[in-house]
Amino acid sequence: MKLQASYYLNDNVVSLAQNLIGKLLLTRIDGHLTSGLITETEAYAGVADRASHAFGGKRTARNEVMYHCGGKAYVYLCYGLHHLFNIVTNEEDIPHAVLIRSILPYDGLQIQLERRKCKIWLYPVMQGPGKVSQALGITVQENGQSLLGRRIWLEDMGILLPKNAIYSSARIGVDYAGDDALLPYRFYTTEANLKACFPIKSF
DNA sequence: CGTACGATCTGCT
DNA sequence: GCAGATCGTACGA
Asked: In terms of residue numbers, what domain contains A126?
């Protein structure tokens, strides 16, 4: 089931980041359908969050889409070479976003491996926000895209992870954010946890 | 304008 | 464990 507009309007970006674990992220880019189950996310909680690009109400050409209505892609270039994919959430003018940090490949594994320039699949191959975008073909060209369209979207696969199968920690790489670097806004699960809860046994 | 740096990844030691 | 890649953005002069 494709996630609808109302899903992204949730005003609690932290609980939404947790809820996104186990959802399927799909792209149809360059004629290829590729997807992965989300295994790791981070919440960026708007103007009050020192780790967010929108901290203090900062609004620039780069982060403009964060201020749009929830349900769009915010993709930006990091370190000059990595395209980082975020889901914009909450209503217009409230710049909340969830960074997708890791996936477990689902559709189009071979294409994903080719994009990643890997011969075989090993666990860390799609672990890391830059790797997720590379595997799914997402670049800054996708910035501002609606997640209700047919280029990038999410689906609920009916995976119901128990709370104790989702872990939390501080966010990665945000040391500059002072006390906010310690907030437990990162959520993740394991491949084994996911497979144990997946309704289709063949997976 | 000039410059410093980043929500990272890879390959080499 | 560490340096290098690589460039758009932000911010100060």
From this structure: 5-196
